[in-house]
Amino acid sequence: MVCCLGGGSVALCTQILPLERVSGWPEPPRKFSSPSKEVSTQWGTSYQVNVDPLGQNIVGDAANEPSLCIDPNNQDRIAIGWRQFNSITNSFRQAGYGWSTNGGLSWGFGGVLETNVFRSDPVLAPDADGGFYYLSLTPFPVFACDLWKSTNGGRAWTRIGPALGGDKSWMTIDATTNATEGTVYECWSVVENQYGTNIISSSPDLGRTWHNPSPIPQLPFWSTMDLGPGGELYHFGWNGEGFWLSRSTNSLQEPGSLVFDLSTEVDLGGDLATISPINPDGLLGQPWVAIDRSAGPYRGRVYTLSSVSRNGSPVDVLFARSLNGGQTWEPPVRLNDDTAGLKAYHWFGTLSVAPSGRVDACWYDTRNSQLNHTSELYYTYSLDGGTTWATNRAVSPPFDQSLGYPSQQKIGDYIGMVSIPDAACVAYSATFNGEEDIWFLRVDQPLVIRIAQSGRGLELGWDAVVGRTYCIQAIPNLKTSWTNALNLGCLSATNLLMRVNLPISDRVEFFRVVRE
Questions:
Q1: Edge-to-edge strands of the sheet including 243-248?
Q2: How many domains does the chain contain in total?
């Protein structure tokens, strides 16, 4: 759908994308399985999430539109929610979920929130104490959302209650140390909801009660949200004519309906990409906003990203940043670094910021498929606040994005990414098994080792994650292959900056540090 604005209200809505409609019929879960896969590139291994109790692939089901959350106090605890189709032959979808206790190396599939209940648009987020929350849309008998909570890392979920909302809802939770900690923010589309142009609300008590919904300037939709270092709320979406960033700070002073003190149009160099043969019934991505809440030099910067159509290119990933809280914006930057004019699709662009201030971006990419029949998950990052970006990496093998469609002809409308100190964690849908499945990938950042002379020895130094194990290896020359058998020793990091002193040896010439 595209909504054109007139006189500050929705004047015309023309449907160009199917809305969430109850269709098909519930089918029992599939009973047949096949060996699950681990798919790898040189940049990491993807692990299947929607597996049976034995960790096997479930033959004949489908899963897409994943959202993930990670416990901020224990990054080995991860949960992912998605749209679960028990059969690829119909479009009846439910709210699937899975969990991991070992950082995504293996997964348990818990089934669905409610059996035979039609659900869509899953969004997950954690609170400051490691509680997980699952926002889910139910379009029958009217479009509405409810909120669920897990206190055991996503193994089991309990319904908290209704959460207002409507089609294409989104959620973020204040997990800062400010007075607004524990506030849940929810927004939704101007079409198919019970509240007209009132499209955002907040809950001061983690979803138990909700304030009356409010409008957002320019009425953007298909939106995402993030929080600034002081707990200020940023909302970013598309209103049919442009991208708009809105900021609310009134919840910092007093409870009640949200009031926005800033609304600015953001130039992303084109229009939001929607209809295409790549994902016929779905979006080609959402507008994303992410804020630097680190203690570093870029704290408070506002970053936006979306897959956009422009200048004859089907879809590019464009990034723009604001250095003053969203008031003004620098010109957009194209993140996909392939040659322009190839007619490739760079879709499902996704953005997040690590606690260190590193900016991560990922997307599906058809640059290596001559007829755009296959996509790969691509990734890049910036260590200097979005000024420069690493060379694009293909972090997944190619997959045919059209395989295993449920009756609804799409692979969802978005994927999910969360940035942690030394990695970007991605939940995405792909067809490595010949059907749509959910996959988890951890893209580790390269370790940069600093070497200095220390007395009669050497000092090795590197940035570390407290509690993670690092192993020091040595080889006499570069003709020798690196192996774990060459470990000089392993240690668990106790500081963000690790230093190890080693004696100088006439035999050893090269050192490296690897994560376990």
A1: 221-227, 233-238, 243-248, 260-266
A2: 2
